[in-house]
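Need tokens for this chain, all 352 residues.
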Amino acid sequence: MKVVVVGAGYAGMLAANRIARKVRTAEITVVNPRPDFVERVRLHQQIAGTAAAATPLASMLRDGIALRVAAVDKVGDGSVVLDDGASVGFDYAFLAVGSTVRPMPGTVPVGTWEGAEQARVALAALPAGSTVTVIGGGATGVETAAEVAEARPDLQVRIVGSSVGRDFSHRAFQRVRSGLERLKVAVVDDGVTEVADGVVRLRSGGEFVSGLTLWAIVSGVPDLAARSGLKVDAGGRALVDPYLRSVDDERIFVVGDCAAVPGARFACALATPQAAHAADTLARLSEGRPPEPYSLRYVARAVTLGRKDAVGQFTRPDDSLRRACVTGRTAAVVKEMASRGGKYGARTGTGA
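Here are the structure tokens for all 352 residues:
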């Protein structure tokens, strides 16, 4: 059985390693545009210089998995066509190309490796007293603003979003806002209409000068599925059946941000369970057993506020927020959420 995994982020990496463990006869090829696994949720640390977010794929893939460093032009008809014209045949393919960022002109994207590297260099060159602006009031924006503020207390850091921290509610929301205040991050609840010549213009009519403006909003998916002729939703995500297979071709599994799973939002916490389920489905099929449908279930949300502080809030299975939350030092929050997760039906890991 020949299996090709397109994309080596959280979903692709887990799927490849899990298939190698569960389907011993599979010949697995991973195709990725760079030779490294990029830990996307740590790109804000890459920017601030507090941690590295890339690890060589060769050190993470199980023995026997082949790696092709290349971009993909098309997937379909039992073949993955690469950008150099070569192709890799498959019996089954896993499409795991994640989501992407479409930054506003004048900003540097946080959510891509290239953008994070550009931002890291620019941040390191900023003189004391300069202003860094982070656009995006979700978890990525909050973590980026907090990380930069803690790493560079000599800078003025500002976060702008229509409602900063509103991914959380009740005490968790208050804790996020107080954590930003502790780090002296200025919070601006407003929209941005333009960034030009180092000036950020707000929907309310205000404006201010910014030495570096970071875009912390994920806004779409790569067009590979659509380019390959697969049915996609209005956002470009590939339509899938209950077993996470393309509705056009049962040989193609689609997992992670690029899959149009009903009720799913962009999150690595959803990508990995989907990848695990799809890999297990392939294992079942290889043994002649029927597939089982994937069940989407949310457990919690969490955000770090620099290296020493974090907030976690439990959710209902439909992603609506509970009042229960955990705050404190990052390691303690992770441990407490894991220990209390059983109360809410949490599964603390999928394994590979």
